[in-house]
Amino acid sequence: MSDARPTGPTWNEPGPGLEALSEALDEAATGVRELEPAARRRAEQLRHAVEALHGSGINAIVRRLREDPRGRELLFELADDPVVRLLFSVHGILQPTPVTESLRALEKVRPYLRAHGGDAELVRVDGDTAFLRVSGTCNSRALAGVTLREVVKEALIGGVGSIARVVMLAGDPPPTLIPLGPVRNRDGGWVAVGTAVGLGERPITALHLERADGVKADIVVISLDGQLIAYRDICAHQGLPINVAQLDPATGTLTCPRHGFCYDARSGACLNSPGAQLTQLPLRVDNGQVWIRVDA
Ligand code: FES
């Protein structure tokens, strides 16, 4: 007896790539556009129904995976696959963060800034406000009266939908940013923050540095395989404190529990959102004493 089941295309492992899938989709979309109006409406209804089904299933899978640490790791790995990444983006699972979008917007104008002797650093994004440090912000003849700050503001407010305000911090961190009440200061912004032994005993140490005039600096020190690394206590996703992150010594990763941003604990590079980055601070050990330069 013959098998009466309908046959469809069979894909060999690992399946068609993004390009082949995109071509097939384009071809099908062109075919639908050429249909009579009534048939086109039915085809669109079918497409929406299939997308809704897939979206619901994918969201359920992602929700379940997010509940488990190993599942979250798998999600990060999966998101590296271009087809999965596209699927996640289509269904709103992967969205560029305001930080990522701001960094991209800055990259677009950076060649222009540098050509005019300037540069810009995104310090953090807080709600609808981006905080930046711009250097070389003087007017120059070449800029015909337009400052580098204005170029940066325009790039961010015009290029990132969620950014409505841009606050420029001083180009060079002002001396008032150098801490700090309970710690000792030294030339060049180096601050003694504790002993290497003490900081090495805890995977993550949050340090709140505050000087008499109320200026504050929050940092975290990560202890990993005998190495100490310092970052500003700011997750690159939404600018919230990163000191609640989980450090996994086996993988050398630091994961923010809020939305799952996962960082290489040694470099601060975000592994699941390329371009996002923790701000690392210079750290050195001198006679067992740990010093961090907070004006970096
Ligand atoms: S604040 Fe969203 S992942 Fe850290």
TrEMBL record:
The alphabetical list of record keywords is: 2Fe-2S, Iron, Iron-sulfur, Metal-binding
Query: What GO MF terms are annotated?
Result: 2 iron, 2 sulfur cluster binding; iron ion binding; monooxygenase activity; oxidoreductase activity, acting on paired donors, with incorporation or reduction of molecular oxygen
Q: Which PROSITE patterns match?
A: RIESKE
Q: Which InterPro entries match?
A: FSCA_dom_sf, NIF_FeS_clus_asmbl_NifU_C, Rieske_2Fe-2S, Rieske_2Fe-2S_sf
Is Iron found in the keyword set?
yes
Which Gene3D superfamilies does the UniProt entry name for this protein? Fe-S cluster assembly (FSCA), Rieske [2Fe-2S] iron-sulphur domain
GO process terms (BP)? iron-sulfur cluster assembly
Instruction: Give the Rieske domain ranges.
Output: 190-292
Q: Its biological function?
A: May be involved in the formation or repair of [Fe-S] clusters present in iron-sulfur proteins.
Q: What is this protein called?
A: Rieske (2Fe-2S) iron-sulfur domain protein
Report the source organism.
Candidatus Protofrankia datiscae
